Amino acid sequence: MSTSTISKFDLQVFKHNQFPLALSSEQEEILKLKKEKNAVILCHNYQIDSIQKISDYVGDSLGLARQAAQTDADIIVFCGVHFMAETAKILNPSKTVLLPDMDAGCSLSDSCPAPQLADYKKKNPDTYIVAYVNCSADVKALSDVICTSGNAVQIVNNVPEDKEILFVPDQNLGQWVMGQTGRKMKLWPGSCYAHVLFTKESIERCRLEHPNAPVVAHPECIESVRDLADEVCSTEKMVSYCRDNSSNTFIILTETGMMHRLTRELPNKSFIAGPTGHCACNDCRFMKMNTISKLFDCLKNKSPEIKMPDSLIKNAQKPIERMLNWS
Ligand code: 13P
Ligand code: SF4
Questions:
Q1: How much is the pTM?
Q2: Residue 134 Cα, ligand 2 centroid: separation in angstroms?
């Protein structure tokens, strides 16, 4: 079968740019402002390349939460989505936490409204709630412990054995964790709109073109896609997996921003963005709301700022701190 009949469209292959462009004047200005204001820029792996390049730390949700807990900067500019910036604020109530675009939400977080979870909790008071960090602060405050894709297996393994667990809000991650731990859990029926776009058929087509490339998938992918993967892991672990694996080419099943981090850190390897059923790449529309101009404006104006009532911060702190202690 020829390549053209296998693919509906050309696959996107990412390689290291050996001649990176100099920083733009706006990027230089941001670095200057950051210094003047004693700010730190924390950036998720899915952000655009120009933001990743000027950030102090680029990583997954777990790494970002750890960095947020440790920083001595006065201002945290969070280049990611709303629940991540909220987590940074919960861990640093006295600091100013900025998010370049307040509309940068998350479909997964939206799939678990706090009033519905509160209702479940009222009817099932003994259930132990493990919440994936991709949820609102109100949901965190109702939960017993938080986890990220990087530590979910470890966290669930730590839950007392006599407890019935409800895992919110991602049913795909929850299902994968059940398989890894052998622990039965009730799963909230939420999912990430972007990761569920990868299909068994779209990845099988890609594999026909690159039969030797290991497939690396995020656990938010659906089960039939995860089953095709050589490794299922958080975005941070994708970097170490590809570094330690002797292959030169990998098929990556997560948001496209990840390719920037991978090509920067592993310049001698190539990464194929996993195609969905209808597109060669998979951008999260929320992650892509942050731009260099919005980052500059938010640092300059110290706005938009994450603000939360003290009582909510206090209640959401406990399960996050439990996570940090357990992992
Ligand atoms: P990671 O913690 O693995 O980076 O995942 C965050 C996320 O939002 C995945 O869609
Ligand atoms: Fe949420 Fe999915 Fe975007 Fe991650 S990729 S922030 S889970 S919508």
A1: 0.94
A2: 8
